[in-house]
């Protein structure tokens, strides 16, 4: 996938149909299967966030152009006034005119973005996926972490294409931003953050542990 950062609030990315299929999606189903379309979009946005540190916040303006060999997507964070009554799109007019919109995809993206954002705000949680080259790295991490580090974590362990992945969810009911940073810094000593979504891991990977990954690993591999 090719990613271009246009400005602080706008990012454009291109994904070929070949890349889409390599990710496990059928070219036709992204048009007619809403659930699979949503999964693909959020997987792409996770990758954009990782590479460009593009945080999803506030209203978004999204345009999708269907090309012969792939999709070109433009995502812009709208600027909202303090009273919340007005928002502006910080993108030049020529950029907007250059991108014709496919109504089917735009409607779905616009609607689902607001839905997911509302859900995240209600849940008050942050999710990450960490990949590990060897299971030994998961064991070493589990031994280093204290009970207070993982006591309130929601975790799942997967195996996918010869690599281990731990999906982690932090609830702001139990973790402050500083505590999340501290726990992540420990985890990243043993693994690397991944753009793979938990949905893809569930569908195409093998679930090894469905909960309490670090507690269970520390217990059985002490």
UniProtKB/TrEMBL annotation:
Keyword entries, A-Z: Competence, Sporulation
Keyword Ribosomal protein listed: no
GO biological process: establishment of competence for transformation; negative regulation of establishment of competence for transformation; negative regulation of sporulation resulting in formation of a cellular spore; sporulation resulting in formation of a cellular spore
GO molecular function: protein-macromolecule adaptor activity
UniProt-listed Pfam families: MecA
PANTHER family: ADAPTER PROTEIN MECA, ADAPTER PROTEIN MECA 1
Quaternary assembly: Homodimer.
Family in the record: Belongs to the MecA family.
Entry function: Enables the recognition and targeting of unfolded and aggregated proteins to the ClpC protease or to other proteins involved in proteolysis. Acts negatively in the development of competence by binding ComK and recruiting it to the ClpCP protease. When overexpressed, inhibits sporulation. Also involved in Spx degradation by ClpC.
HAMAP family according to UniProt: MecA
Domain characteristics, as noted in the entry: The N-terminal domain has binding sites for ComK and probably for unfolded/aggregated proteins; the C-terminal domain interacts with ClpC.
Name of the protein in its database record: Adapter protein MecA
Organism of origin: Rossellomorea vietnamensis
């Amino acid at each position: 996938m090719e990613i271009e950062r246009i400005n602080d609030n706008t990012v454009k990315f291109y994904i070929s149909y070949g890349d889409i299929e390599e990710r496990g999606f059928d070219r036709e189903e992204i048009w007619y299967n809403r659930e699979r379309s949503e999964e693909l979009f959020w997987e792409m946005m996770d990758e954009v966030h990782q590479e460009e540190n593009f945080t999803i916040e506030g209203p978004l303006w999204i345009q999708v152009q269907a090309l012969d060999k792939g999709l070109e997507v433009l995502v812009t964070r709208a600027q909202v006034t303090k009273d919340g009554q007005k928002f502006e799109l910080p993108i030049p007019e020529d950029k907007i005119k250059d991108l014709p919109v496919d109504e089917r995809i735009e409607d779905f993206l616009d609607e689902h973005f607001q839905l997911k954002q509302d859900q995240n705000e209600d849940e008050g949680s942050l999710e990450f996926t960490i990949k590990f080259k060897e299971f030994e790295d998961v064991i070493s991490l589990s031994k280093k972490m204290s009970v207070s580090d993982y006591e309130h974590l929601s975790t799942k362990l997967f195996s996918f294409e010869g690599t281990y992945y731990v999906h982690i969810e932090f609830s702001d009911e139990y973790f402050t931003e500083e505590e999340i940073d501290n726990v992540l810094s420990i985890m990243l000593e043993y693994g690397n953050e991944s753009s793979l979504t938990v949905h893809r891991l569930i569908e195409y990977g093998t679930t090894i542990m469905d909960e309490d990954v670090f507690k269970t690993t520390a217990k059985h591999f002490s």
